[in-house]
Design goal:
With 463 residues, the protein is mainly alpha-helical. The longest helix has 34 residues. Helices cover 77% and strands 0% of the residues.
Amino acid sequence: MAGLRKDEEAKQPAQNSTPVARWKLVPGWVEPWRERLAAWGKTTRFWRRRLLLFLAVVGPGVITSNVDNDAGGISVYSQVGAKYGYALLWSLIPMTIALYVTEEMCARMGVVTGKGLSDLIREEFGFRPTFFLILAGLIVDMGNVAAEFAGVAASMQIFGISKYISVPIAALAVGFLVMRGTARAVEKIFLAACVLYLSYIASAFLAKPEWVLAAKNTVIPTMHLDGGYLLMLTALVGTTIAPWQFFYLQAAVVEKRVARRQYPQARADVLVGSISCMVIVFFIIICTAATLHATGHFNITDASEAAQALVPLAGKWAGMLFAFGLLNASLFAASILPLSTAHVICEGMGFEAGIDHKFNDAPIFYSLYTGMIAVGAAVILIPRAPLQKILVLSQVGNGVWLPVVLIFILLLVNRRDLMGDLVNTRTFNVIAWVTTVAMIVLTLVLVYVGIFHSGSVPRLPGL
């Protein structure tokens, strides 16, 4: 009996042993899902690491490129689509290349030197040229800030809100954002504002455009020699590349403390920003071309008029989304333009600058920022304020200022003692100098139109 009991006890553990895993019994299941996921994780580790590095650096390039789609820019893009339909879409490809090359040079200088553009110009060329550069920037950007609050007023009037309510609230909001936030927190809000530009893509799809015709005009250039077409092309280029972008981008790269080893990620940030900016421009033109141009509404004066005109043509949601995009763009630019100007002046004069500083550490920087917001908003609240003239003069000022800034950038970025082995390549120099010469020619056109504007060419809202 004792022997029989021992035999039964010996068999018991075998009966209670852990059952064989199901994956071993099913043919084709060589390993469990946990092991498969681990193997997949090893194979994708390189790309995940690169993505994380990019996300750590992303911000300055995407923000700077997209904020240029401001109230004046959207007004120009809307009129381009309304007046000429899809005909000017081809210009977006060379404009994307020019935008990337010019902004990449500033990002590279910020990474290598750890200094802002205005700071470098003062150190390398002296105080006198820096002073005149600062003065020009202050005058031009003051007009640009006023134009952004004009966009806030126009967009909110579509929703039935008076400018005497919307503009003061907007001014307080953008002032509080920077005065009370950290650089990282403000950057996250700005990136979120970039995402809201997707409302224009939705508006374009609701407009039901002719996609094949749009694609054809994007890759095949069509030129017309009439004055209106050339003027519209000039306005399109002039509103895409603005001089304040270079100062803000380089200052943002420095403030973010992007190291030299992170330069590839910073360059990718600028590339993503340049492409995403032009994608939004593409869809704004598509939207107005498919509705306003297709139905004979060729002449509009601003983006708010385009939004109102979209309602009976493409539906209420298309018009509301377009108006919301204008509001977002105006608030976005009204926050960043004063920041750019404050950086230009403080760096050029040797004062402390940056959102991460407290007011007591950078009083000049914050005073300039809040002062520009207050003045820009106050101008819009003046009854019968000459908003059209403000827009015209600010864009002409941008055109005059831009070639000068580009020449300074090119002289600095080709200094081997300053940039080391990251000086411009021959290809970059060719593209950059061609862009500079083209902008000088466009500047002459802008100045001519601003002084001798005639009724034979269309009146541009952003020019």
